[in-house]
Amino acid sequence: MIARRDDPRPLPSETSLRVIMRHLREIMSDGGEGQDKLDRIVRQIAGVMVAEVCSIYLKRQDGSLELFASEGLNPDSVHTTRLKRGEGLVGRASELGTTVNEPEASNHPAFSYRPETGEEIYHSLLAVPISRSGQVLGVLVIQNRTPREYSDEDVEVLQATAMVIAENLISGAVAGTVAAIEASRSQPGLIEGEPLSDGIALGHVVLHEPRIVVTQLMAENPAIELERLDLALEKLQKNIDEMFEHEHLSSVGEHRDVLEAYRMFAHDKGWHRRLREAVEGGLTAEAAVERVQNAMRTRMLRQHDAYWRERQRDLDDLSDRLLRVLSGRLKSSEDDGGLPPDAILVARTMGPAELLDYDRSRLRGLVVEDGSSQSHVAVVAKALGIAAIGQASGIVDRVSAGDAAIVDAVTGEVHLRPTGELIAAYSDKVRFRARRQKRYQSLRDRPAITKDGVPIAMMMNAGLLVDLPHLDESGADGIGLYRTELQFMLSEAFPRLDRQTQLYRSVIEEAGGKPVVFRTLDIGGDKVLPYLRQPKEENPAMGWRAIRMALDRPELFRLQIRALLKAAAGRELRVMIPMVSASYELGAIRALIERERAFLTEHGHPLPETVLVGAMFEVPALLFELDAFLSRVDFVSVGSNDLMQFLFASDRTNARVASRFDVLAPAPLRALRTLITTADRYGVPVTICGEMAGSPLEAMTLIALGFRSLSMAPASIGPIKSMVLSLDAGKVAAFIDELLKEGAKDVRMSLQQFAEKERVAIDG
Ligand code: PEP
Ligand code: MG
């Protein structure tokens, strides 16, 4: 930008940046107190940027922001003004990690008025997060009286300045000021969340997708930095080109658009120019990558359409890749060398496929800031036998890679940097659990029959070949739900017919004659196949998923059915269709299956002896056409995770609402009873394979409602069998009948009291 003659600002942006950098360097190298340094920093920035106010807010342990230094605001408000986590525009910048640029700050709905600061006279506000390695340490703010939107150059200068401040905060150059913040990262701490997958794990923290830490921001020798940058860009381009060629040969083309966009960016002259300019402005090559990424992100975020959001993701990926090239760690994501043997993964958010990316033999625990017990990442964590906790809010900001941690997924607590005593106590707990596990093992060969002689089929959920040994270990009667999509999520490309056939055949063989229910692909919602292009949807869980995809794009479904029919030749095949919403869909599905059967017969392939076609009961609408539905299926399995989210209109992956409704409430229990009594009339067997079946109190209630087959994660088989053996099915049925008749308010509590009185083993 060229400065206008009447522009009060004396210098164009690169120069102002250089001036600020020079001053910062001087301030940092001078002796003196940390507070004094911060005061001088805000004074300098305000001067160079012609801002009436410049302030630094720093984050405290509880996530609140404290005003640490200010030029322009009332001096009494320094160290007095505190913003709660996420409060006001400054809190927003910190919480979201984004830049806020508001010409009329006080008109903004998020504005938080603090009379003690005297800021009511300032209209425009620019706030940028002070962050390092993805962790927000505070916020740098400038304000002016005249309402104006700050220019891109202003934003870039302030962002670069914030980076340098962050570096100096971390390196201790402003000693004392951040002692509290640093202390919170080294002392024992406790975070409470919600258990996602049972277990206790002791290990060391690995931050999911940690960014490369840029340790040096200011260049010693700009010429060398330029050379490093050019070399790295060249290597990056080569790397992308190779990837493109490789993918081009091996894929059917779904990746090509994505790779083409990558390639475009990697070769983009504008990007190169900006990186060079940043290096010429005094930054190291790594710092330049971060700075340009931040600046471009700010611009792209202003565009609200999906296209730009995607481009931003591309740019983020590419910038991370370039940082890896610069640090000589480009291959780091492919080898697991850095993963300790007792890794506790910590992430803000994680999808099921991302979890599967890790070497499971090194994973002990998982802690995420979002997540609910019915989300797919929880399902996968359970399948992998990893102790997992969700809703651990703020954990990412409170840990460093390598910290010791204990994940107690029984209570939902994460102990950070635990003391020796706590470690010893938990080691005892782990040993106790192992002993209890032994007790469950002793029940392995005992049939699950209630005290009054009612047999309950104990089925297991699975989704990967490695789950199959659990069938024998747990003594389960069969596999009630085999989630075929999990294998697809692990593959690099859509598995072809032969690979699928082989896989299903191995599952059937490993099951050794026990029944296996193969659920056809349930893709969509939070389960994504990286190689399959799916339209972006506002509500993917209610969108184009599972059977809906199968009916609209039958090729993938037919291929899977063909593989299943071939794999089960000469035996019984049970296929189950997910997300059925209306009975007519089953007619269309059966026709597709029939077509594959005819094709194989025509080509002389042996067929299964019998083919049973079942459906998942996950969509409440089916309750109102049970007759039509039940007359079209050979068996039904209740997917209580989805059924409950749709019954209560409560997103299973959204921690805020997922635990708001109780599955042990009259409404869902009546729905389940209606299904089971009608299915009995039709002679259709019903199982339940959602998470409900694996919790003792819930499982007891299901038996009370008439369920005689339960399918659950392998680790639940022992506790549930122990519950069944101590239960009188007749008594509990009569009890629930009364409860539902009365419309009891607290069904859970009443059931708990029943279990205690009757000594039903519901404590696992
Ligand atoms: C369910 O919805 O309860 C279920 C078993 O399916 P998934 O969890 O895979 O959606
Ligand atoms: Mg489901």
Structural overview:
- By secondary structure, the protein is of the alpha/beta class.
- The strands form three sheets. An eight-stranded mixed beta sheet has the order 7-14-13-9-10-11-12-8. Strands 21-20-19-18-17-16-15-22 form an eight-stranded parallel beta sheet. A six-stranded antiparallel beta sheet has the order 3-2-1-6-5-4.
- A hairpin with a 5-residue loop joins strand 1 (53-59) and strand 2 (65-71).
- The protein is globular.
- The structure holds phosphoenolpyruvate and magnesium ion.
- The site of magnesium ion has 5 residues, from helix 22.
Binned, the helix content reads 40-55%
Ions, cofactors, ligands: which are bound? phosphoenolpyruvate, magnesium ion
Q: Please outline the major beta sheet.
A: 8 strands, mixed
Q: What is the molecular shape? A: globular
Distance between the termini: 68 Å
Q: Return Rg in Å.
A: 30 Å
**Regarding quaternary structure, how should these chains be classified?**
single chain
Helical region count?
28
Low-confidence stretches: 1-12, 246-256, 331-335
Brief overview, please?
By secondary structure, the chain is of the alpha/beta class. The protein is built from 28 helices and 22 strands. Helix 6 (about 220-250) packs antiparallel against helix 8 (about 270-280) and helix 6 (about 220-250) crosses helix 10 (about 305-325).
